[in-house]
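Page 42, continued from yesterday. The earlier attempt failed because a stray header line got pasted into the input along with the sequence. Redoing it now with the clean sequence only.
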Amino acid sequence: MFFARLRELLGSDTLEIADADCPIDVAGLRAMLRLSVNPDLADSLADPNVFCAVNQKVVSDDEPLASSDEVGFFPPMTGG
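This time it went through. Structure tokens are written below.
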């Protein structure tokens, strides 16, 4: 799942990945996505301030993934 500006860059809020193509961890997913999406979204996903949640829990890039996981990418937020 993609939120805010990332969703706008993709043109959709979701992208499904086949079970057989599921990367081993979040870092692998980021790398895979950067190769398969448009350049603007790829650049945004490479930003260290874009955070990731797996099954609604914020995680680091070394978090292992299972094929049934829901993964969300969020750009940095501002506000008060």
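Notes: The two ends are 24 Å apart (CA to CA).
Reminder to self: strip header lines before submitting.
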